[in-house]
Amino acid sequence: MDCPFCGCEMHTGEVRGEMMISVEKDTGIFWCRSDRTKLQKIFDADKRLLTDNKNILGYRIPAHYCSKCKKVILDAEVEDLV
Ligand SMILES: [Zn+2]
To answer: How many whole angstroms from 51 Cα to the centroid of ligand 1?
Structure first.
């Protein structure tokens, strides 16, 4: 998939809610490329790790990431959006 912002090819992978097994033992939302197994941290605009909410464990959704624009695109449906 090409990035709609810059036109570059995006990385295909998943957005996951996981606990990273590392020295830091971070819990949050991570990115994993489809051709790799390594989880990579996702930060918000203020450089905070997206989220420390433990209820998101096990969450996985296919997504595309543009490393140039720092954008993630995924399919979503929001229930009862008013
Ligand atoms: Zn882009």
So the answer is: 23
